[in-house]
TrEMBL record:
Coiled-coil ranges from the UniProt annotation: none
UniProt superkingdom: Eukaryota
Entry-linked PROSITE patterns: ARGINASE_1 (PS01053), ARGINASE_2 (PS51409)
Gene source species: Nycticryphes semicollaris
Protein name: SPEB protein
GO terms for MF: agmatinase activity; metal ion binding
Name of the gene encoding the protein in the UniProt record: Agmat
SUPFAM superfamilies: Arginase/deacetylase
Database matches in Gene3D superfamilies: Ureohydrolase domain
Family: Belongs to the arginase family. Agmatinase subfamily.
InterPro entries, A to Z: Ureohydrolase, Ureohydrolase_dom_sf, Ureohydrolase_Mn_BS
GO biological process, one term: putrescine biosynthetic process from arginine, via agmatine
Protein keywords: Hydrolase, Metal-binding
């Protein structure tokens, strides 16, 4: 619960114990703006603040499902500036793993299984600590309308499961699921979907046995 601002103080605490961590970030937006509505601490800015404070291992950051509107005319430039050796082709035919922020736009995920993508992500993350941050607006509002910043043409629940289950075996040291606003969804489906995704995250934590 909460908006994406909460990931910033969580990662401050995580970094105190583990140092800079890798990040698997599912979202419709990169959340790397410098300011939004005049504020530097805002749900559209947490990952820029994290980079500035050295909380992230910028060689191990992937952002999946990115699309939609922005307050900035070039919203991906900051992410590109962090990247070195980013793949020039589709993420599903990566030959050189990215070193830096790896932005996977939603359109590169349409009508595809994300199992191959997560294979490449696993190689990028290695065995060092990682954090999973899942914004519910990464999913298409057809499935999760109960959020403050819905963007059409997003991920499906099946793809969400492929992403989370694709993290099993990684050195996950924390996770969150944010931006759920049940009052915007009279059906209750967004909250149901979010609860199931959180359950899936608990199942992929290190040491958890599943059947």
């Amino acid at each position: 619960g909460g908006d994406h601002t909460i990931t910033y103080p969580i990662l401050q605490a995580v970094a105190e114990k583990h140092g800079p961590v890798g990040l698997v970030h599912v979202d419709a937006h990169t959340d790397t703006s410098d300011r939004a509505l005049g504020e530097k601490i805002y749900h559209g800015t947490p990952f820029r603040r994290c980079v500035e404070e050295g909380l992230l291992d910028c060689s191990r950051v992937v952002q999946i499902g990115i699309r939609g509107s922005s307050y900035d005319p070039n919203p991906y430039q900051y992410c590109r500036d962090q990247a070195r050796n980013a793949p020039l082709c589709s993420p599903f035919c990566v030959s050189v793993l990215p070193q830096g922020f790896w932005v996977v736009p939603a359109e590169e995920c349409w009508s595809k299984s994300l199992v191959p993508l997560m294979g490449a992500v696993r190689k990028q993350m290695g065995d060092k600590p990682i954090y999973i941050s899942f914004d519910i607006d990464g999913l298409d509002p057809a499935y999760a309308p109960g959020t403050g910043t819905p963007e059409i043409a997003g991920l499906t629940p099946v793809q969400a499961l492929e992403i989370i289950r694709g993290c099993k075996g990684l050195n996950i040291v924390g996770c969150d699921l944010v931006e759920v606003a049940p009052m915007y969804d009279v059906s209750g489906n967004t909250a149901l979907l979010a609860a199931n995704l959180l359950f899936e995250m608990l199942c992929v934590l290190p040491g958890v046995k599943t059947m």
